[in-house]
Queue: 2 jobs
Job 1
Amino acid sequence: TKDLNGVGQVVLRNPQGASAQVSLHGGQVTSWRNEHGEELLFTSSKAIFKPPKAMRGGIPICFPQFGNCGSLELHGFARNKLWAIDDNPPVLRPNDSQGKSFVDLLLKPSEEDLKFWPHSFEFRLRVSLAMNGDLTLISRVRNVNGKMFSFSFAYHTYFLVSDISEVRIEGLETCDYLDNLCHRERFTEQGDALTFESEVDRLYLSSRKVIAVLDHEKKQTYVIRKEGLPDVVVWNPWEKKSKSMVDFGDEEYKQMLCVDAAAIEKPITLKPGEEWTGRLQLSVVPSSFCSEN
Ligand code: TA6
């Protein structure tokens, strides 16, 4: 089922009790809970719910620019805009809606937006919750017969973890990455799973379609499946940087990890009438850890 509550949030629910919450503000998923009602996404205790500022946590949409590698605000304007419910959504793949509770949102540029980013686009976002609790986000960006344009994109996903020092990422081994902490210098990841002892801010050039985030304490694994999104951003600000952010609690860096399915290194270019689709499917599965971890 889905219902729009008074604060512009669409709540998706499935019969097993799992739920997801999507805000019309920013098209941002603000909550994803399992069948026991346990929250799976991080939201800062100091998050600012004051439009147009994006709320720190959940899954902000970074579009048409990731980071501040362009002329727009950090991570682009899409996450700071009011989206509309899309009443005539495009037909996606049949299983994109079978047995799922979903909502379709639409973002189009206002006259104001066109002054900053003069490209006529339509951005359709489908957020769906499957019967098994999986959360899927499908973004479709179309060039509405304007001139050719390029953009970078990320699902800026704040996963909730029990203790960052007990988390590891599998699926990025041997991938190259650009290290934001070293002037985006290029390195190659070693053969082991990624673990965390200090600030990490990296862009992995990983065309692998499945990434796993293992939370030792919770004995659960987030499984990230992505299509049309060749890169993965991994970010934890650690103590010093998180203390410098007003909307980030002092110790909260221990309970979060951003693992963003993205298209950044090679921006997406759309000719008039062309469309790009970026799919993200999130699952959470119990994971039995072997004792050596
Ligand atoms: O996730 C990578 C990153 O660009 C970091 O460098 C940091 O700036 C972060 O995003 C900021 O994201 P925020 O949600 O605070 O806009």
Note: Residues 56, 67, 74-75, 156, 180, 201, 233, 235, 258 surround 6-O-phosphono-beta-D-tagatofuranose (CB under 6 Å).
Job 2
Amino acid sequence: MASDVGFEHVDVVVVGAGFAGLYAVHRLRELGFSVRAFEAGGDVGGTWYWNRYPGARCDIESLEYSYSFSPALQQEWVWSRRYPEQPEMLRYAQHVADRFALREAITFGTRVTSAEFDTDHWAIRTDAGHQIQTRFCVLATGCLSAAQIPEIAGRESFAGATYHTARWPQEGVDFAGQRVAVIGTGASGIQAVPLIAEQADHLTVFQRTANFSVAGSNEPLPRDEMRERQAHYAEFRERARRSFGGVLLRQNRVSALAVSEVERAAEFASRWGTGGFSFMAAFDDLIFDPAANEHAAEFVRQKIRDIVTDPATADLLTPRDHPIGTKRICVDSGYYATFNRNNVTLVDLRATPIERLTPGGLRVGGQEYAVDSIVFATGFDAMTGAVLRMDIRGRDARTIQEKWSGGPTTYLGLAVAGFPNLFLIAGPGSPSVISNAFLSIEQHVDWIGDCLVMMRDQGLATIEAEPEAEAAWVDHVNEVADRTLYVKADSWYLGANVPGKPRMFMPYIGGVSRYRKRCDAVAATDYEGFTTS
Ligand code: N01
């Protein structure tokens, strides 16, 4: 295949054509750079291309989860539901790609396999034989894109069909008449379970950790609400940029411990009624104070006991091993109530893990569960997986695997010392997965664009994070995380879901507003913490 692909020289290679890659292609071309992007999937959309499992939808409201860079795009795109479902998100990505003629810069169905730095450029290679010399490389590889299937003995022996929620077949799956197993009860499992239960003959859910979930009703978005937002988009976007997570939640500034029991219960009940992430904004200290958090956790535990009729099942579904919100809280539609159906069984893997897969199903605690299909809702090697699956070599041919052997270290989540002219979008060390992805993506791409323009204007060839600046930033990221309860949970934020992955809180939890100010200040002070040449 290499024969029909010659050497190419461009200013920027963008890896990935999800929402980060799409905006990077658009913005950098707009600034006059030549850009080439590669995307492993067959089309644009990233997360929203791959995650087609039943029930897949966003847990941030559609009025907030979209691009702000184009006022015209904001005026022409009309969301149909309060929480965008996967097909609508994918249509939005496709619309953006067409509207801004982005596909012409993207090669689909092609993975970047290696990137090697030499003097002042990167040599990029793909699995289709492309070889490209580029001055800059932008990794828009996604934080939840490297799907994880656990090593389970006998996996190859299973004779039925297996699926991962993040690699769902394009044509969909019909589970009618089947006995189905779902392994995993994170956000993906919790969204898929109610729908699979409606279709399958019997569904067995294999749970290792009980999870907190808050219902989020997904009614159609009223046209007048959409029009109202369109009339004031600029103002809302600006408020989101100045918020903590990039989402305009109704944040109560009061401590959960400063109000009476009756007031506390009323606030939680009101938030439960609203649904979604707003629950964790019920009080100001839920993510900092264990006693405050426990009140919120107990409210949800009681809801589970109220909803689930079988006390033993309710007990198993009740999370007790982590503070609420420290594993990303789930937003569901009827998850707990699904366990009242007589075609749904819950199996506890905490007491007895899966021993092995067999040709006919799974064996747990000496018992055989016969199934026709297995759905792995087992998550991702988050934030670093997609980067570490490539062979990236920086200065002195040092690999990224070696550099990050103790955990991902970055300067501002944007750059890595020893890897000049390489940028991450929403990388570890930035608000990323703990924020509204669109807002954080746009902020990073705009910052990178400005940086490249500065380099062009000043005739600079390289920019590289300084090791001291990187170390200080990593300390700051850890210090901020250590003030929260997040570090108490075995979550994917800490890499705890991947055997052998160094434990390190990866996103920056100091808030998008504070983070943006810091990035702007670095740019304004002649890129303090970076060395240029
Ligand atoms: O993945 P997860 P996910 N044996 O890692 C279990 C975003 N997202 O795809 O908790 C048995 O959360 C694992 O158990 P445990 C969102 O940010 C958003 O669901 O490690 N079980 C867990 O239950 C989310 O947080 C949306 O003990 C095993 C599950 O598999 C992130 O993506 C929708 C196992 C994995 O849960 C990831 O969510 C979907 C094993 N060997 C996703 N290995 C929305 O916008 C793992 N598990 C709503």
Note: The CA atoms of residues 98 and 104 lie 9 Å apart.
